[in-house]
Each structure stands twice: as C-alpha cells, then as structure tokens.
C-alpha cells in the first residue's frame, strides 16, 4: 500500500529556508504571498501488513529517522 | 488564506536521497517499507485575492521558483 508522510516545522521554530523563499518570491516580482514555511514529504510503498500494522511501522520510521520530533511534527496518510 | 504546495520527483527520475533513506531504515531494523521517494512541501499564507487569483499566483511561484518542472511535479492545495 502507498503512504505519504509530511514533516513540518513546529509553530514558533524559525525557518530561514522559508524566509529565503519569501525574499526570492518578492525579488521575482511575485506579490501576495505573505509567508512560506518549508517541510519535507516522503512517499512510501509499504508492505508491512494491514492498515494498523503499516501505520505502526511508519510511526516508528518517523520517530527514529524521518522527523526530529524536538522541532518537527509529522503526519501520516495511508493512501 | 492558507495553501500547501507539494513538489515531488517525476516518475522515472532517480532519487538517491530516497534510496539512502531506504537503506537507513533497513539498517535501523525497520522492515516492511519497500520504497521511499522524498519531496518538498511548502505551507504558504496567501493574501492574493480570492481562490482563482491566489491559485494563479501560486502556479507562477511554482513555475518560476519552487519546482523544477523538468524533473518535478507540483500540486497546489488551497486549504
């Protein structure tokens, strides 16, 4: 089955990459975008059993590798 | 209004970062994840008018800055 994990910075954590994108958009003359925050997305192909088993595997992957839970949130979607 | 842009590699484009993650997951003993592809997510705060106007602005931002449309697809969600 397919799954998507989205990792985003927690509210309040500074995002210099997002700020750089905001500045680049303005310098390209693209108006009307007030703020940008960048995150990561992982598209996964999972063979670990049914829904709950797959979700448990994905949660472990997030906690151990994909997200730094001190400063990042993650969301798991089974597609 | 809030919007989310998801940028992913096109099918067939090699993703060494995804391969590295697959190997790292295996080395951590996490089984059952067969393939990983990494992409980017941008969470934006848009003030550019209503729905269609905002979407046009976001499409321009994707084409000019956020996605390399030679090797990447992008999807815009207005939240």
Automatic annotation (TrEMBL), chains A, B:
Give the E.C. number(s).
Answer: 6.3.5.3
Q: Does the keyword Transferase apply?
A: no
Predominantly, its location class is cytoplasm
Record-linked Gene3D superfamilies: Phosphoribosylformylglycinamidine synthase subunit PurS
Which terms are listed as keywords in the entry?
Answer: ATP-binding, Cytoplasm, Ligase, Nucleotide-binding, Purine biosynthesis
List, alphabetically, the InterPro entries matched. Answer: PurS, PurS-like_sf
Q: Which family does the similarity line name?
A: Belongs to the PurS family.
- Say what the protein does: Part of the phosphoribosylformylglycinamidine synthase complex involved in the purines biosynthetic pathway. Catalyzes the ATP-dependent conversion of formylglycinamide ribonucleotide (FGAR) and glutamine to yield formylglycinamidine ribonucleotide (FGAM) and glutamate. The FGAM synthase complex is composed of three subunits. PurQ produces an ammonia molecule by converting glutamine to glutamate. PurL transfers the ammonia molecule to FGAR to form FGAM in an ATP-dependent manner.
- How the protein assembles, per its UniProt entry? Part of the FGAM synthase complex composed of 1 PurL, 1 PurQ and 2 PurS subunits.
Query: Could you tell me what this protein is called?
Result: Phosphoribosylformylglycinamidine synthase subunit PurS
Which organism encodes this protein?
Methylobacterium pseudosasicola
């Amino acid at each position: 089955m397919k799954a998507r994990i989205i990792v985003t910075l927690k509210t309040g954590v500074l995002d210099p990459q997002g700020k750089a994108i905001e500045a680049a958009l303005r310098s390209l003359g693209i108006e009307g975008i007030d703020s940008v925050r960048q995150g990561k997305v992982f598209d996964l192909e999972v063979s670990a059993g049914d829904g709950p088993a797959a979700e448990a595997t994905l949660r472990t992957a997030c906690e151990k590798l994909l997200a730094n839970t001190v400063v990042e949130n993650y969301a798991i979607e089974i597609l």
